[in-house]
Each structure stands twice: as C-alpha cells, then as structure tokens.
Amino acid sequence: MFGLIDGNSFYCSCERAFNPALRGKPLVVLSNNDGCVIARTQEAKDLGLKMGDAWHLVRQKPELRDVEWRSSNYALYGDMSRRMYEVLLELVPLVEPYSIDEMFLDLTGLPGDMTARCIAMRDAVRRIAKIPTCVGIGPTKTIAKLANRIAKGDRAGSGVCNLSSADVRASAYEKVLIGDLWGIGRASVGKLGALGIDTIAQFVALPPDRVRDLLTVTGLRTHAELRGISCMPLSLIPPAKKSLAHTRSFGEAVTDWDAMREAVGIYTVRAAEKLRRHGLMASAMQVFMRTNEFNNDSKYANSVTVPIETTADTFALVDAATKAAFRLWRDGFRYAKAGVIFIDLYPTAAVPASLFPSRDPEHSARLMTAMDSINRRFGRDAVWPGGVKPEARWQMRRARLSPCYTTRFDQILEARCGGRSVLLED
DNA sequence: TCTGGGGTCCTAGGACCC
DNA sequence: TCTGGGGTCCTAGGACCC
C-alpha cells in the first residue's frame, strides 16, 4: 500500500513557518525573476489567482492590491523539504522523495488503522516541520496521488483520503475528471475528450489496447495502475541524473555580446558547481539563447550541442560554453534568456582516464576542490574564473526574497526575550 | 518595463550497417 | 525488368511532471 504526502501550498507554507504575520493572508510566491505566480495560499486561490499568472498583470488589479508576495527562495524550501522527510522517516520505514514537496510512503504491513495513522503522521509534520500537508492512500502510486488530490479538495475533511477499498475507488472514479489524473496532461485530455471520455471511470472502462494506441505505453501504465496493478515501485535510490542545467531569463534584455558572454559564463560556473556537488562529469553540453517569446521583439532562438572532453572543470566548461554561445550569437536582437545544459553525465569515479588530456586531471580536480571549498567557507562567489565577473544589470529580479532562515548563519531568525517573542509554534 | 526553471520518458524518422 | 530484411544509433519534438 502506498501513501503520498504533500505540503499544502508548499512554498507559501515555508514562508509562513517563519513569518506568522503572513498567516491567514492571501500570499503568493513568484517564479525566478518575479515573473509569474508559482504557489498560492488558499486565501489567494479564493481571490481567483491562478498558477502561472503573470505577476506584472496581477499587480495592476486593484482588488488584488493586498495580496502578499515573495520571491522564491529555493534554499529555504529545499531545507524545509529535508526536514519534512526526516520527520517522516521516523514514522514510516520507507520514504521516497518525489519532488520538493511530495513524498511517497510505503504503508505496507503497518499495524492499526491506516487512515488514523496518516492523520497522526500529518499532525507530526505540522508540529515538527511546520508544514501543513495532505495524505492520499492507495494500492498504487497513481491511486495514492489521486487520493491526495481528493484530500486536498475536501477543505472540511481530515486531510487524509483513503482509496484502498475498491468500492470507494469506483465511486471516486465516477466523480473525478480525467485531466486531474497524474500522467494525463492537456494533449491526452483532448484526445480522450474527442471520444467522449471525460471521467476516470470512463477511462478505466477502455480496453488496454485502445489506451495504448491512443496514449502510448505511459498512458497504458496509468490505466493499469488505476485498476490496482502497481507498475511503479517505490525506489529508495534516486536514479542517476541524465542532464543538469542552469538556465535563466534576464532581468533586462541583453543586446551586446559581452553581456551574453558573461551571462553564459556565469550560468556555466553555476552548472559546473552543481555537477561537482553531484559527483558527476559531463561529456557534452548544450547552449541556447533566445529572444522574448511574448512581446513584439524580432524573434530568434537557437541552440547548439557540443561534445566535450569529459570533465567537471569550470575553466574547460566555461571555455566550451563561450565558444558555443559565440556560434549562436547574432547581432541586433534583444535576448531575453539563455542557458547551459550538461548532458551525457558520468559519475566521476567511472570516467576512464583520457590518453591525451588537454588539462592535467589531477591538477584540475585539486583546483576545483580548492575553489569549491573557498566558496563554501568565504561565501558563494568568493573566487571566480577571470573574465566571468557577475554584472548586476541583467541579473534576475528577486525583489522580495525572504532570508535563508535555516541555511545561512547570517540570516538566522532572531528571537528576543522580554518583548513579544517570535515563536515558531502556533 | 514586466510572462520560471529543471527534469524524464517516448516515438518517429533519418543515417547507417551488414 | 527488377530494388530485401533486419538491425542499431542518434536526434528532434512532443508530452508530461513539479
């Protein structure tokens, strides 16, 4: 039996955990660059705010003037996610983190009433990790996801929905739309809708061959899972990464090559840091740049994939990325976004020695280790490759960034004795 | 002025091989 | 006049997820 627990309005809940003044108020968290809405509290949903709403348009509406907002703070959310995971590990033997705010649980063989257990689990996460959650229970991951969705929709309920019984499932399938299913997106809803299939019950009634023809093997898997056949086991070992990227929209359009070169250089430095954190090396990279997709600027978008000598060396990677970017660069456009994606990744330990390396691998490894530890000790960006100096002009906007309460000592929450103390407890 | 970022998986079609 | 069969690998693009 599977459980799926997920944080309600997770990013907003993280902000609220450290700022009680935000409780009970409509609050949204914005994407990078303060571009669009990516998390909303119930109060904000009630005001009609949608996922993906462009913030600059929302702000203009007078009735939404009092909506609180924050720039996204992934260092904080990632750490809160870890706390949630640790609380759960104490209560359930197997926990599989699925996304920053969701974890699958193995509930097989746990004694006592399943629903009651999950209610207690939810309380513990609320109390210790300060995150309100909902839990779905079912014999497959897809059904647990569905149950979770139903729990979230039932605002007066216990926050737990148990679909382990076939009868309860059958009646739920009648009421839920196919588009609310995990794995069924817009395109599939269109295809099924054309055949008059709108509810999960109708979908489940289709013959498997028909489902495969329509939605390929992924659709077939969802179909089987809904019928109680588990096709997605719990995996405790996270699968090896296949790609790793750093891509950003610019705060302000980039029009000269120097600024683009710097941007791509910095994105490469970041991606290379991430590469080393994961103990990986890349043997190919993709670089892209593009103009704004939404406004009336003349359009240009291009990307190039280049093989590289397998490495995690920032200098080598910046060099390759800069050359690739130069091939893409065309004068006269207003660039809005660029990115660097590493593909063909290998664990550092598994990379065979090159016969004629262009850089001494041992020297490179020592240099990278030194660079990373200096930056860890003296703050991010204490040392940089020459020629890749960050320039504020085009960097992303993050106008209302909350402190990294839990990951940086200089931003830790202050509590005062005597006056009104800032407590994390309710 | 202003519309995110980072992933995975599947399929079709082309290039190439014997 | 006639033009196979079987296979692999790579890439681009679509679809989906959070």
Plain-language structure description:
The protein is of the alpha+beta class and 426 residues long. It folds into three domains: 2-132, MutS, DNA mismatch repair protein, domain I (3-Layer(aba) Sandwich); 165-226, DNA polymerase, domain 1 (Orthogonal Bundle); 243-378, DNA polymerase, Y-family, little finger domain (Dna Ligase, domain 1), CATH 3.30.1490. The chain has 13 helices and twelve strands. It has helices at residues 10-18, 42-46, 55-58, 74-91, 114-129, 141-153, 166-175, 186-194, 200-204, 208-226, 257-277, 314-328, 361-378, and strands at residues 2-7, 27-30, 37-40, 68-71, 95-99, 102-106, 133-138, 160-162, 243-254, 280-291, 301-311, 335-347. The strands form three sheets. The protein has a five-stranded mixed sheet with strand order 5-6-1-7-8. Helix 11 (257-277) packs antiparallel against helix 12 (314-328). The longest helix has 21 residues, at 257-277.
